[in-house]
Design goal:
100 residues; 3 helices; single chain; VanZ family protein
């Protein structure tokens, strides 16, 4: 686990990683079949808890609201895309059903 603010990374890389990891968690949660309200609640709790733990534990990392917001934005975007694609597929499939 690298320390916060790795100097060799371009500015903003940390937020991109936060966004991407939570987007991946959201998608894999949907693939695993978690119900949406439970998945959302778990992601919100994990975003806050992970940032809190980084701030209070002596692990050479810092926690903060911007990172938690990047986490939540990644999850929200991934879930929105997932739900839009699922809705589009369902409407497309209903249109392909023949009467007989």
């Amino acid at each position: 686990m690298p320390a916060s603010g790795v100097p060799s990374a371009p500015p903003g890389t940390d937020k991109v990683i936060h966004f991407s990891l939570f987007a991946l968690l959201a998608v894999t949660g949907m693939i695993a079949g978690f119900r949406l309200p439970f998945l959302v609640a778990g992601l919100v709790v994990w975003a806050g808890l992970s940032e809190f733990l980084q701030a209070v534990l002596p692990i050479g990392r810092t926690g903060g609201l911007p990172d938690a917001l990047a986490d939540l934005l990644g999850a929200a975007v991934a879930l929105a895309v997932w739900l839009l694609v699922r809705s589009w597929r369902r409407s497309r499939d209903r249109g392909n059903v023949s009467d007989g």
